[in-house]
Amino acid sequence: MRSSLIKWVDDSVIRAAAAAVNRLDHPDAAYAEAMALLSSNTLFPEITESIEPISIDHKGDFQFRSQARSSYPPNETVHGRFYGDVSQLATKPCVILLHGWNDQFGYRYRFPWMGRRMAKKGLHSVRLTLPYHFDRYVQGRDFICGDIVSTIEAVGQAVTDIRTLISMLKAAGVEKIGIWGASLGALLSGLVMTRDSRLNCGVLAVPVTDLEHAIDNLGFCQPIKRSLNGRRLPLTAFDLMHQTPQLSPENILVVAGKYDQFSPLEIIRDLARKWNVKNLWELEHGHITSLMMPRNSFRICRWLEDKLVKGR
Fold first, then answer.
1. Cys-Cys link to 146, which of 35, 52, 227, 280 (CB 3.0-4.6 A)?
2. CATH value at residue 189
3. Which of 288, 283, 258, 265 is nearest to 182 (CA)?
4. Residue 173, SS3?
């Protein structure tokens, strides 16, 4: 009975998301342009070496200009929020927090709550706003939509923005940096782990790792499927199974839900085996309830504290 209810929660969210995103359908998306973008060297640009240290105001807010391509000015400014003591920025480890797709609860409540909790335990954190979300919202656009070129660019831009933030933290003197992503944020965290050696540890919480499976099976990805019109895209650049992390396996935590309807358990198990991950938590939850339960977030906080503060 409990597992049926958990699955129903996931299915209900998938249906609601599908109803919203389908209004952003773009059936005439440029397939050839998408193919060219995926095979280009511009999808994940190199980060400029001369990056200024992060500048945080008295409220804990910060922003910077994205180094990645974007066709919409509101999306070119990256927004974030710092949790901790700004005057002690260089003296403590910092965790980058990445929300899920249109994850209002995580963005406005879970991560701020966890950020304040970690600050009491000697960990700073920064919540980064992903492209086309919240302060970066663009009318009529979304991170996931039938405009496949825009969706591909959004992934590349997100990875670039995260790596830019790492550079800004390093420039400010932060020695140890971790990353904690949820759902879409976990996929992006994984992509950063495979491209950046400056992270000390990382958490992938219910990551959506198999985009082919998502496009074929998740209702809110149907605009992408319709735009492809039976064609396939070479998505290996976004597939964590085809990437190798630059973190050692013991410094990676993967969290899976046994009843996850977004990213099935077996897919996440396959990733853990491929990456030789030592820490795989299989929770008695689905995708949504894994993220909603405070106890799960508290456990992740403790794991991060052990890695970054206590050095275990």
1. 227
2. 3.40.50.1820
3. 288
4. coil
- Domain boundaries, position 150: 2-308
Q: Token pair 């879409």 is at which residue? A: 184
Record the tokens describing residue 274, joined without a space: 């491929």
Q: Where are the beta strands (DSSP E) in 39-193?
A: 61-65, 77-83, 94-98, 124-128, 177-182
Which pair of tokens denotes residue 257? Answer: 């839900």
Q: Count Cα atoms within 13 angstroms, Cβ side, for 229.
A: 10
Looking at the structure of the chain, the number of domains it has is 1
Residues contacting residue 21 through CB under 8 Å, at least 6 positions apart: 142, 144, 145, 220, 223
Neighbouring-strand partners of residue 96? 126, 179
CA–CA dist 299, 51 (Å, integer): 34
Residue 310: both structure tokens together: 């206590």
Write out pLDDT tens, residues 265-307: 999 999 999 999 999 999 999 999 999 999 999 999 999 999 9
